[in-house]
Amino acid sequence: MSEAExxxxxxxxxxEMNEEMKKVCIIGCGAIGSLYAAHLARVAEVxxxxxxxxxxxxxxxxxxxxxxxxxxxxxxxxxxxxxxxxDCDFGIVATKATQVKESFRLVGRRFDKGAxxxxxxxxxxxxxxxxxxxxxxxRATTFMSxxxxxxxxxxxxxxxxxxxxPFEPTGTPHEVVKExxxxxxxGGLKAEAxxxxxxxxxxKLIFNASVNGVSALTGLPHSQHFAQESGFSxxxxxxxxLIEEGKxxxxxxxxxxxxxxxxxxxxxxxxxxxxxxxxxxxxxxATEIDFLSGAIAREAQRVGxxxxxxxxxxxxxxxxxxxxxxxxxxxxxxxx
Length: 336
Prior knowledge:
Elements: H1 3-10, E1 23-27, H2 31-40, E2 45-49, H3 53-62, E3 64-68, E4 72-74, E5 77-79, E6 90-93, H4 100-104, E7 115-118, H5 125-130, E8 136-142, E9 145-150, E10 153-158, E11 162-166, H6 174-186, E12 191-193, H7 198-218, H8 235-252, H9 261-268, H10 276-282, H11 293-303, H12 308-323
Helix pairs in contact: 1-6, 7-8, 7-9, 7-10, 7-12, 8-11, 11-12
C-alpha cells in the first residue's frame, strides 16, 4: 500500500476504526497531551495518567475544555496511580522526552496487548518505550500546537496532522498504525498513517534541533532573526548551516526527508514563539538536547561523518545545564 493510500484510509475515521481500540490512556497532560486526551474522549474511554493529585482531581471534577480552533468540553478519567488504570488498547506518551522513562515505566504493562504512540520531540523515545511494554510502538511526529491555560483548559492553535508509522523493532503492523490514525481522526484531529515515518520524524528533528538550540543559547524566541541572511552577523546563516548539516547526516543515514526543514524554519520564524528549550533554560530545567542535536551528532558519528555544528550546540547546552548547579567558582580543584 502506498503512503497516499495509507493516509486516505486513515481519514475515513471511525467507520474504518478497529472496534477493539476503545480504551485509551494519555501519559502526560500538558498542552499536546491535553489536546489528544480531549479529542479522543469524544470517541473512546480516555484515562489521563498525570503526576499531580490536584491535576487528576480537577480533570475528574471538571473534565477538559478545548477552545480556539475547536470548542468543546469532555469528561474523562484521571489518576496518578498506575494501579487505577485498566489494560488499554492505545496509549499516547505526551511527556517531554526527558520524562518518558520515569513516567511510562509505571504503566507500560497496561499496553502489553495494545499499541503506544510516542509524541516526543527528537528521536530516541521509541526505544525507551519499547523496553517497557510488550505492545506495539508507533513512531510519530506532530506540529499540532496549543496553549495550556490551566489543568482543565487547553487552547488549540495549529491544526496540523500527526504523522505516524511503525516503530520497526517492535514489528508494528501498518494496519495497527492505520487503526490508531483512524481513532485520532474520528476524535476531530488530523493524522496520517505512513508506511515509514522516519522521513517525517527527521524533517522535524533537524528543524527542532536547529531552532531550539539557537534559541536556548541566544535567549531569542523563534523570530525573524532565525531566517535573516542579508548581513554578516545574521543568525539565519547559522540556522541554514545547522539545517544543511542535519540534512547531510540524514542523507548519509539513508533517510529521505518528508519536508524541507529550512522552509519550516522560515514559516516558524514569523511566529515569535518561544521554543520548549528556551522555556527550559529560563526555568533551569533539564532540556531535551540529548534527543535533538545530541541525536544528530550521535547519528553522524555512527555513519562516520562530521557534524561539528550540532556537536557544538549539544556540548554548549550541556555546559549551560551544568552551570546551573555549579558551586565551586574560585575553589581550587583537589586532585586525588
